[in-house]
Design a protein that fits this description.
Layout: H1 7-12, E1 22-23, H2 48-55, E2 58-61, E3 70-71, E4 82-84, H3 97-102, E5 107-111, H4 118-122, E6 127-131, H5 135-149, E7 155-160, H6 165-176, E8 182-184, H7 192-200, E9 208-212, H8 220-227, E10 232-235, H9 243-246, H10 249-257, E11 267-271, H11 275-284, E12 289-293, E13 298-307, E14 312-319, E15 325-330, H12 338-350, H13 355-361, E16 373-376, E17 382-386, H14 392-404, E18 411-416, H15 425-439, E19 442-446, E20 460-461, H16 464-473, E21 481-485, H17 493-500
Parallel strand pairs: 1-15, 3-4, 4-5, 5-6, 7-9, 7-10, 8-9, 10-11, 11-12, 12-13, 17-21, 18-19, 18-21, 19-20
Antiparallel strand pairs: 2-6, 13-14, 14-15, 16-17
């Protein structure tokens, strides 16, 4: 790997600005790539059999080349794709192997005990990967072997955090994709299976692998890191989430810090405003730490939020890893979105991009569906779609945005319950309820957890349909803003869809 340019070298380069001098950067698309040049001529293909012995699995039937598209849902598996038969909480995926074979699947990952010898003769187009243990571990072992085989791979980046990890992943993708042959986890692929499937689908000329790692229990991130060790590990935040499993904030910190145990770790990128996290990073004696936030090496300052007709706009002054400061103006859902954005900027800076180059790609960093995207109803009301997930920290940040922006009309708050908080659920929902009363003109609550909060009954709806009808009766219109936020299990996307009509 070529040596990374130091921040000092960047500052002394042509066109750079020394120290923390602030400037307005022209947002012109840079030309060129930072990726390694591929060798001339064709390379030997990576075949499944080459990885099998390293992964401790057996291959029957054909011997396909990688990359491979592998599905975990038999209903989504198409002709020519692979299927992994997982033991679900309710259904054993091995039951659906005949179905996907009939559809023309090219690969089946199953437990050795479940394999039937006649399958190879009946379906000669298919390769069968037989695992001696549960399929997720065999699949992860294959992914681990494939990751090691990628000759052009420069960095494996993994991002975790209580909030903001998907936004940070998306922002990192936006900043890096013009400079590297980048392969990125899609959707919500942040489990061991999701990461393994992502890696196995990577083109052989991948230079940068970008993964997202989530956890509901201790040890989950440690398992991902053991199979797919990142060279750069990022933690966006440590906050109360999944307390039912982690018990305390210290438990959350321990779980997220598992990503820092990677045997290949060269750099940790962490939230510099979280004292617990900074202390933990210092205790671990990591090879390199880059902090982002209001404190650290990648900074935001003078942040402010405004409402502009039909969307929020965040303005701030950002300082990159090379010490160059520049102005930011983006349609983000609140100033809290600066944290995942600065996480991405820190990662891009660590890979050698200057602040000028980063600034050129910033307009691509936008909120996605379920994570702050603004939609407009036919009546002109703005719908702030935050229905993908919710934790106390995330809900408080969204309420702060609704409270601080100069919204011309009414503030509607549609709040689903926050799941997996364990014994802290009543108190956390109570705090959110009190804050929501201060912020909202109209408040609507949905989900069983609100029933235990004193005073919440007057705002509670026991069905999505009843909630939608109640909102419709108020006739939201131009100038009104409707925040829809709750845990994924609330299915509040139904509310967003209904309000758009």
């Amino acid at each position: 790997m070529p040596p990374r340019r130091s921040a000092g070298a960047l500052r002394q380069g042509a066109g750079s600005v020394s120290g923390n001098q602030r400037c307005q950067i022209s947002l012109q698309r840079p030309v060129g790539r930072r990726g390694l040049e591929l060798r001339e001529g064709s390379e030997d293909p990576v075949r499944l059999s080459r990885l099998a012995s390293q992964a401790g699995v057996t291959v029957k039937g054909t011997d396909p080349e990688l990359p491979l598209v592998i599905r975990v849902d038999s209903r989504e598996t198409q002709k020519g794709e692979g299927f992994v038969a997982l033991h679900g909480t309710k259904v054993d995926g091995h039951r659906f192997i005949p179905d996907v074979l009939a559809k023309g699947a090219s690969l089946i990952v199953c437990e050795a005990a479940a394999y039937q010898e006649e399958w190879s003769s009946l379906y000669p187009q298919c390769a069968f990967v037989l695992t001696p243990e549960r399929c997720e571990f065999g699949l992860a072992s294959l992914a681990s072997a494939y990751l090691r085989s990628l000759e052009h791979l420069r960095e494996t980046i993994a991002i975790t955090g209580s909030v903001g990890k998907t936004s940070a992943k998306n922002d990192t993708k936006a900043l890096l994709e013009d400079y590297f042959k980048l392969h990125v986890a899609g959707g919500n692929y942040n489990t061991l299976i999701g990461c393994a499937v992502t890696v196995l689908a990577a083109p052989t000329d991948t230079e940068v692998m970008l993964l997202e790692m989530g956890a509901n229990h201790r040890g989950e991130i440690a398992a991902m890191v053991s199979y797919l060790p990142p060279t750069i590990a990022a933690i966006t935040e440590v906050a109360p989430a999944h307390l039912e499993s982690f018990a305390s904030l210290e438990g959350v910190l321990q779980a997220k810090s598992e990503i820092l145990a990677s045997k290949n770790l060269r750099c940790a990128v962490i939230n510099g405003d979280n004292e617990m996290l900074c202390t933990r990073a210092e205790e671990l004696g990591l090879p390199e730490v880059i902090r982002f936030g209001r404190c650290g090496e990648v900074l935001f300052a003078r942040e402010r939020l405004s409402w502009e007709k039909d969307h929020f706009t965040v303005r701030a002054i950002l300082t990159g890893l090379d010490g160059l400061s520049f102005n930011l103006s983006l349609p983000l859902a609140g100033v809290h979105q600066l944290y995942p954005l600065c996480c991405a900027i820190a990662i891009a800076g660590r890979l050698g991009l200057s602040s000028r180059e980063i600034a050129a790609s910033l307009p691509k960093c936008r909120n996605s569906a379920g994570r702050g995207e603004v939609r407009l109803s036919e009546s002109g009301a703005a719908i702030l779609d935050e229905c993908y997930n919710a934790s106390p920290a995330a809900v408080k940040a969204s309420l702060a945005a609704m409270d601080s922006a100069d919204i011309p009309g009414r503030r509607f708050l549609i709040l689903g319950e926050m799941l997996e908080l364990g014994t802290a659920s009543v108190s956390e929902h109570g705090r959110i309820f009190e804050r929501a009363l201060q912020v909202s003109d109209l408040l609507y609550l949905f989900g069983e957890e609100w029933k235990n909060v004193e005073g919440a009954a007057d705002y509670y709806y026991d069905s999505i349909d009843a909630l939608i009808e109640a909102v419709d009766r108020t006739r939201p219109g131009e100038g009104d803003v409707i925040l829809v936020k709750g845990s994924r299990g609330n299915h509040l996307e139904r509310v967003v869809k209904a309000l758009e009509l």
